[in-house]
């Protein structure tokens, strides 16, 4: 849980974005949603937005994906849970997410051309 001091400064925390960043992210996601309707036929943006606003930790994860050069977009809807499925739909892997091993075990096993990190370590740092 963020400290009161961090909340007062409007600092980005692991769980919530400040209102101005939240609004900017939602505008970006909406524009991408509207420009790529073939990815989510039958899904309404208002329903996606309501679900995201009710789950600020999901917005945090999408913000991290966007911040690191990704292009998150809705690609599905789980009718049983009501959750919307997002994938990174960028044309190629963002620069900061290239040349990584899947997990720590694979990273430790690399002898030559060893990447700096693993995908599971990156996800842990982003809170996913």
Can I get a quick summary?
Helices cover 46% and strands 9% of the residues.
Describe this structure in words.
There is one protein chain. It is built from 6 helices and 2 strands, in the order ααααββαα. A two-stranded antiparallel sheet has the order 1-2. It has 2 domains: 15-90, no CATH class; 98-128, no CATH class. 7% of the residues are buried. It is mostly helical.
Secondary structure: number of strands: 2
- Could you report the average pLDDT, rounded to the nearest whole number? 83
Number of domains: 2
Q: Approximately how much beta-strand content do the residues carry? A: 5-15%
Helix count from the secondary structure assignment: 6
- The termini sit apart by 16 Å
Helix-strand sequence: HHHHEEHH
Sheet with most strands: 2 strands, antiparallel
- Helix coverage percent of residues? 40-55%
The residue ranges in which pLDDT falls below 50 over 5 or more consecutive positions are: 1-13
Query: Within the largest sheet, what's the order of strands?
Result: 1-2
Gyration radius over CA = 17 Å
Supply the key terms.
elongated; 128 residues; mainly alpha; two-stranded antiparallel sheet; disordered N terminus; 46% helix; 6 helices
Topology:
Layout: H1 4-9, H2 19-35, H3 45-54, H4 56-67, E1 72-77, E2 84-88, H5 104-109, H6 119-126
Antiparallel strand pairs: 1-2
């Amino acid at each position: 849980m963020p400290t009161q001091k961090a909340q007062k400064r409007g600092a980005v925390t692991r769980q919530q974005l400040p209102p101005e960043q939240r609004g900017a992210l939602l505008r970006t996601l909406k524009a991408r949603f509207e420009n790529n309707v073939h990815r989510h036929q039958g899904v309404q943006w208002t329903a996606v937005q309501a679900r995201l606003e009710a789950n600020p930790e999901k917005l945090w994860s999408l913000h991290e994906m966007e911040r690191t050069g990704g292009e998150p977009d809705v690609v599905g809807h789980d009718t049983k849970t009501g959750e919307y499925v997002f994938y990174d739909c960028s044309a190629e892997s963002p620069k900061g997410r290239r040349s990584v091993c899947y997990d720590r075990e694979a990273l430790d096993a690399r002898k030559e051309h060893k990447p700096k990190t693993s995908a599971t370590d990156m996800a842990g740092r982003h809170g996913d």
